[in-house]
Amino acid sequence: MAQTPAEIQKAYRERKKASEQAAGDATYPFLKEPFYLWLERTDGGGDWTAAEMELNLASIEMPQFEDDDGPRPYDGAFGDDLEKYYLGYEKSIGRAEAMVDSLIGAASCIAVVINKYKCQEIEARLKELEVSDEADKATAMKQAVQLNKILDQLNKQVRSSFPQWKVRGI
Asked: CB neighbours of 90 closer than 8 A, spacing ≥ 6?
């Protein structure tokens, strides 16, 4: 069956993205000092310590960068598929880049789970109010309005800004 123009464009974008990912970061040829040594020498201007504190607050241990090895999973999982996850990442800087990508992915997944939980609980409270025989209808109405405002907030998307950490396709 023939593809629609939208499907053709989507396939093109996916091929282009895969090609850029496989090519690696455009900055790699210009990076002389290994990332792990630079980090050891500078502490990232103090931001690495700040990141360690943030992860500590989240009960997550910061990975150590003591060598120039590339990215690797924590527990050796993913078997033969491992190379596709780290395609285009090289050495300790690639490990740090992959870590940022994975942390963003994890944060997004965790946010979805929290959002689903809260929405389900708020919707359950609204249903309880609907079937309630409470004498004070004004209080119930006020609470329903508040719960609906909460749901409106939970249905919004949030944006976080980061400095660019990867340069692909140049």
From this structure: 24, 25, 28, 70
Give the ranges where the chain is alpha helix by DSSP (H): 5-23, 35-42, 47-57, 82-85, 91-131, 137-154
Structure tokens, 51: 């990141």
Asked if residues 51 and 60 have their Cβ atoms less than 8 Å apart, the reply is: no
User: What amino acid occupies position 155?
Assistant: N
Query: Which residue is it, tokens 């999973």?
Result: 73
Q: In whole angstroms, what separates CA 156 from the centre of its chain? A: 17
114-156, pLDDT tens digit by residue? 999 999 999 999 999 888 877 678 888 899 999 999 999 999 9
* Token pair listed for 63: 């990975």
Q: Are 101 and 162 in contact (CB under 8 A)?
A: no
Whether residue 92 contacts residue 68, with contact meaning beta carbons closer than 8 Å, is answered with yes
- 63 in Cβ contact with 99 (< 8 Å): yes
- Tell me how long the chain is: 170
Tens of pLDDT, residue by residue over 7-57, are: 778 777 777 776 666 667 889 999 999 999 999 999 999 999 999 999 999
